[in-house]
Recover the amino acids of this structure.
C-alpha cells in the first residue's frame, strides 16, 4: 500500500475488493522469508504499508510487538479485525503516511515494507523516515517487484499490451514499476549500511495460482483504480481493457499457463551514528 506524498502521487492499484482478497493471501513466510532469520523475539517491528494485515499478523507471531501502518482507514480497520480474529494481541494498526510516520525517533528495532516503494515518487524520502523511527543498529527490510522481469506463457499480445500499459500507468502516478532492482541504491541513499541483497521469484503455474493471478487481473484491469487511471490519463480505451481482461481469463483457464517475475529484497542497518546522513 502506498502513502500520501508529493502532489500528483497516486496509488495505482486502489482498494477494490478483488485486490484486497489477493493481498489477504500473502503471508510472512512467503513475503518476508528474507527477513525472518534476522528477527529476534524481543524486537519491536513496524510494517509500513501493511494493507489488510496478513503479513503483519505473521510477523507478530515472531516478535514482541508489531505496528502496521497504512493510509486507508478502512484497510487498517480490517487489519485490526484480522489480528483479533486470529488471536494475535501484540499487533496494533494505525493510519499514517510513509513520508510522515506517527512515531517518535528510535521507536522500532525493525521496519519492514513489502511492495510499497514501487508506488512512491520519493522512495528515498520514505526510507529516511524509516531510518528516523529505527533505533541505532536497527534493520530496514524492503521487498519489491521488478515488472520488467515478468514472463508468461502462452504469450498473448493483449497481455504484452497490459505489461506496457501497467508501466505507463505506474509511472504517470509517480511510481517505479521496476523498483526491485533499485532497492539497494535507495537504501544506501537513505543512510543505511551493510545491505544484504537477495532476490526471489513469484510464480503462478498451477490451477490455484492461475486463478489467483489471472482471475484477479481479469477483474482488476476493468473495475479497479488501475482502469480509471489508464482511461482518464488517455493511456487506454475501455475496449483495450476489456480485451486485456478476456486475455487474463484465457490465461487463467489454460492448463499450461505460466507467470513469473523477480522480487528484489534488501535488509540493511541503521548505523550507530547517523550524523553524516542527517539532512
Amino acid at each position: 500500500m502506498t502513502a500520501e506524498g508529493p502532489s500528483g502521487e497516486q496509488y495505482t492499484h486502489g482498494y477494490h475488493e478483488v485486490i484486497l482478497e489477493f493481498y489477504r493471501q500473502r503471508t510472512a513466510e512467503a513475503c518476508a522469508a528474507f527477513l525472518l532469520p534476522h528477527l529476534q523475539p524481543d524486537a519491536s517491528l513496524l510494517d509500513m504499508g501493511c494493507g489488510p494485515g496478513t503479513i503483519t499478523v505473521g510477523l507478530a507471531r515472531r516478535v514482541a510487538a508489531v505496528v502496521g501502518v497504512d493510509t486507508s482507514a478502512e484497510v487498517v480497520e480490517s487489519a485490526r479485525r484480522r489480528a483479533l480474529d486470529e488471536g494475535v494481541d501484540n499487533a496494533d494498526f494505525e493510519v499514517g503516511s510513509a513520508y510522515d510516520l506517527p512515531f517518535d525517533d528510535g521507536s522500532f528495532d525493525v521496519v519492514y515494507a513489502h511492495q510499497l516503494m514501487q508506488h512512491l515518487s520519493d522512495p528515498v524520502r520514505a526510507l529516511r523516515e524509516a531510518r528516523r523511527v529505527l533505533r541505532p543498529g536497527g534493520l530496514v527490510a524492503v521487498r519489491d517487484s521488478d515488472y520488467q522481469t515478468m514472463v508468461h506463457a502462452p504469450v498473448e499480445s493483449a497481455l504484452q499490451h497490459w505489461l506496457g500499459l501497467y508501466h505507463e500507468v505506474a509511472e504517470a502516478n509517480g511510481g517505479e514499476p521496476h523498483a526491485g532492482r533499485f532497492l539497494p541504491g535507495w537504501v544506501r541513499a537513505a543512510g543505511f549500511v551493510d545491505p544484504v541483497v537477495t532476490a526471489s521469484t513469484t510464480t503462478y503455474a498451477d490451477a490455484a495460482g492461475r486463478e489467483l493471478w489471472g482471475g484477479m487481473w481479469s477483474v482488476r484491469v476493468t473495475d479497479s483504480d488501475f482502469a480509471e487511471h489508464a482511461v482518464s490519463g488517455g493511456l487506454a480505451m475501455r475496449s483495450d481493457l476489456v480485451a486485456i481482461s478476456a486475455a487474463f481469463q484465457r490465461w487463467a483457464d489454460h492448463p499450461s499457463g505460466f507467470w513469473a517475475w523477480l522480487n528484489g529484497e534488501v535488509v540493511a542497518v541503521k548505523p550507530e551514528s547517523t550524523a553524516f546522513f542527517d539532512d
